[in-house]
Amino acid sequence: MTISSSFVSQEDVFQDKKILLGVTGSVAAYKAVGLASRLVKRGAKVKVVLTKAGRQFITPLAFSSITLDEVCSSMFPESPPLAAHLHLSLARGADLILVYPATANIIAKMAHGLADDLLSTLLLAGGPPVVIAPAMNTSMYLQEVTQKNMSLLEERGVMFLGPEEGDLACGEYGVGRLIEEEKAIEEIDVLLRRSTQLKGKKFLITAGGTREPIDPVRFITNRSSGKMGKYLAEEALARGAEVIFLKAPMNVPPPVRSHLIEVETAQEMYQEALRVFPEVDVVVMAAAVSDFYPAEKVEEKISKKERKELTLTLLPTPDILAEMGKGKEKQFLVGFSAETDQALERAREKMRDKGLNMIVVNDISRKDIGFGSEFNQVTILHQDGGQRETPRAHKRLISRAIMDEIVARLSDLNSP
Ligand code: C5P
């Protein structure tokens, strides 16, 4: 007997997902019991961490009766097998950390790296994606400091659900109400689906600015900080991709969980990039590769004595993207274009000449975005004529928009 595929139910995205549910001291804490119950019904494995203030509003028993698991509260439980590492094992063992409800206090602690109880410590330990559902009085929510703390966290990749506008427990009306359980579940559903969007795909992402030696102590480089490449790699990892991160020197630490390859010069980057090229599905060349290198290889430091001038002869470096464009089979190639004028026309030309699928254009004549800055504003051009412009935003949000475009085009390519 055959069963039509439309009758075979798709596995629930929550099935077997390990969700760490942090519950803090809000009058809305009772709603977390309903949320935990819905998550368990959808097949998730829920571990609850209840703060000391949270215990004032709801008992651990209310949660453990639903999750059939012990509720954790203390960094130093009385009979722990591995108490010293409890915060690490809890953080690393989860697929997602959800703080529901989150007070202004836990948000402030997260924003500033405080770790004075189990929940704040495991949040600092990091690992899985973090989702925060704030709940507080309107004036606390609208305080400049709370808004700044939330922006800081958003820039670091934390996601927020709500809050909503409505009647508040204090009797006032306004924004600050905890997002309803059902809506929260819907949003987490989308998030979990996104976390597997790039499963099975292998990315090569380059970042940083190459260094071309003049002598053993001096070199030619550029202003690239490496931030865009780092955020792009983190975004690809968050969506389930495997990432080879090929880095030239940069000002920020490379993303954790990527396969790291470190190089200095354009020539070294060229060799490594082409070596791994056959095994990857997508290449994102966010590195600022030097276009020229000093022709002469000098083994000793050039002395300034008896020298009125120094003339360097520079030779062109190999164009890595163009080389890949020539030899590509299945790969989706993404380039970057930094220009000071006629940015779009030049980028279109580059896309054509180098055989790219997509190019990300930024105008480096602006001081408020681009090199070194945390912010950027880009135009994304596609080979087929498609175009998307982003607003000026933090580079982490720009990397999300770029990755959305890559994902959309990859699924177009894969659909019959
Ligand atoms: O031609 P232009 O240097 O403006 O192109 C920029 C794009 O090409 C970037 O994505 C950069 O990483 C890549 N590039 C390269 N090899 C070079 C120079 C730039 O792959 N030698």
Can you summarize this structure?
The chain is an alpha/beta fold. 34% of the residues lie in helices and 22% in strands. Cytidine-5'-monophosphate binds next to helix 12 and strand 16.
Layout of helices and strands:
Blueprint: E1 18-23, H1 31-41, E2 45-50, H2 52-57, H3 60-67, H4 86-92, E3 96-102, H5 104-112, H6 118-125, E4 130-134, H7 138-142, H8 144-155, E5 159-160, E6 164-167, E7 173-177, H9 181-194, E8 202-207, E9 212-213, E10 219-220, H10 227-238, E11 242-247, E12 259-262, H11 266-276, E13 282-285, E14 292-294, E15 314-316, H12 320-327, E16 332-339, H13 343-354, E17 358-363, E18 375-376, E19 378-382, E20 387-389, E21 393-394, H14 395-414
Parallel strand pairs: 1-2, 1-3, 3-4, 4-5, 8-11, 8-13, 11-12, 13-16, 16-17
Antiparallel strand pairs: 6-7, 9-10, 14-15, 17-19, 18-21, 19-20
Helix pairs in contact: 1-3, 1-9, 4-6, 5-8, 10-14
This protein binds cytidine-5'-monophosphate.
CATH architectural designation of the largest domain? 3-Layer(aba) Sandwich
- Number of strand elements: 21
CATH top level of the largest domain?
A: Alpha Beta
Shape: elongated
Family: In the N-terminal section; belongs to the HFCD (homo-oligomeric flavin containing Cys decarboxylase) superfamily.
InterPro entries: CoaB-like_sf (IPR035929), CoaBC (IPR005252), DNA/pantothenate-metab_flavo_C (IPR007085), Flavin_trans-like (IPR036551), Flavoprotein (IPR003382)
Region (Phosphopantothenoylcysteine decarboxylase): 1-202
GO molecular function: FMN binding; metal ion binding; phosphopantothenate--cysteine ligase activity; phosphopantothenoylcysteine decarboxylase activity
